Amino acid sequence: MVHLAEEQIWSYITGEAKAEEVVHVESHIGKCKECEGLYKECLKAHQELQQLEHEVPSMRFSTNVVEALQDLAVLTLKPLKFPTFRYLLLASSLLVVGCSFYLFFEVDASGSQVLTDFVTRKNLQAIIINLLLVLLGVLGLLGLDRLLRKRFRERLN
Amino acid sequence: MMAEDHEHIQQYLKNQSPSAARALVEKYQNAVFTVCMRVLKERNIAEEAAQDSFLKAFRKLGALQVPGKIGGWLMKIAYTTAIDLKRKKNLLEHSGQLEDVDLPDNNNPETLAISRDKQAIVASVLNSMGATDATVLSLFYIDDLPVKEIANITGLSISNVKVKLMRGRKTIKERLKSFVNQDF
Ligand SMILES: [Zn+2]
User: Residues near B177 by Cβ (< 8 Å), separated by ≥ 6?
Assistant: First the structure.
């Protein structure tokens, strides 16, 4: 009598065996102590395997993922539409306007004549120059933001 | 359940909704983490890989064709990510460990005697197996996935999955047998 192969027993246990195979395995196990023993060992292992459960990550796992995702989302936002050429043109024309304003007021500021009670020419000069400086600063930051996002995305891919 | 996934995916794609992301992570984190554990064996490293897997997955969520298949899709990403990390780690450590050698040391009577629990033995055998063998066994028995899906996740052929399943079962069976024999 040829004994059963372990593979036959396993496919019988997992239900993969075809009908005639099932009949063969069952009748053999019924009359062969050795194969019955092997069958019981396999069945035990199968049952233990079926009781296995998922591994569980730490409690903070989902929070960590969501937070990392949000950090990533901020950094991968599309940069503001700001074509480099126009950006440079705007910045330099602002600079030119600023310089000419400054010079214009310097030349004619000696009199410091009163325009209204409060706004002297000197005052007006300071306001306009400061405004232009703020604008330049904003443009500078936008440019930096754009550059960093581009770098970051290059690193991601 | 699948409709729920679909809704969360749409919400996330629309406005990167954190609550939709959290719902998806919480639903699949155990399955993803388990795959990473089978490959990497250590909790903290597996968790790192699991987080990376989710970040990758969310980044290409728009490319997911069938929302109903998100589970298998995530596990495939997790498996690839974990294997990559394992390779990098092995390179760093210069350890001569061969991948996928499953030779659980049978001469460890102390741990066996201490853990009388058969489940603990199965878990420890799983932990001492090669990455691929352990993953295949885990996907079959814990996630109840068909052989075809396991082949897709691990990139193995169907017949290769079957061979690895058989080898894993035999290893578990032998270890349980030696444990029972020791008991008497
Ligand atoms: Zn027999």
Answer: A41
Q: Give the ranges where A32-108 is alpha helix by DSSP (H).
A: 33-50, 61-75, 84-107
B51, B59, B172 ranked by CB distance to A48: nearest: B172
Write the pLDDT tens digit of every residue in B6-30.
999 999 998 889 999 999 999 999 9
pLDDT band at B114 (very low <50, low <70, confident <90, very high): very low
Q: How many CB pairs below 8 A link A and B?
A: 94
Q: What residue in B sits closest to A70 (Cα-Cα)?
A: B18
CA–CA gap between residue A95 and residue A100 (Å, rounded): 9
pLDDT at A116: 56
> How many beta carbons lie within 10 A of that of residue A84, not counting itself?
10
Burial class of residue B140, CB neighbours in 10 A (0-12, 13-18, 19+): buried
Domain ranges in chain A are: 6-51, 74-156
Scan for tokens 């990376």, then name that residue: B52
Q: What's the angle, vertex CA A142, arms to CA A140 and CA A145, rounded to 5?
A: 110
Instruction: Out of B29, B58, B166, name the one closest to residue A62 (CB).
Output: B29
CA distance B26 to chain A (A): 6
pTM comes to 0.72
Are B165 and B147 in contact by the 8 Å Cβ rule? The answer is: yes
**Beta carbons of B34 and A45 less than 8 Å apart:** no
Element housing A140 (H / E):
helix A121-156
The domain containing residue B127 runs over which residues? 2-183
Q: Quick one: tokens of A104? A: 């214009």
Q: Which regions of chain B does DSSP assign to beta strands (E)?
A: none
Mark yes or no for CB contact A45/B58 under 8 Å: no
Q: In chain B, which residues have their Cβ closer than 8 Å to the Cβ of A156?
A: 59
DSSP label of B68: G
Query: Which own/partner contact pairs does A22-26 have at CB distance under 8 Å and 24+ positions apart?
Result: none
Domain count for chain B: 1
Closest-CA residue of A relative to B165 is A10
Predicted ipTM > 0.90: no
Straight-line distance from the first to the last Cα atom of chain B, in angstroms, rounded to the nearest whole number = 48
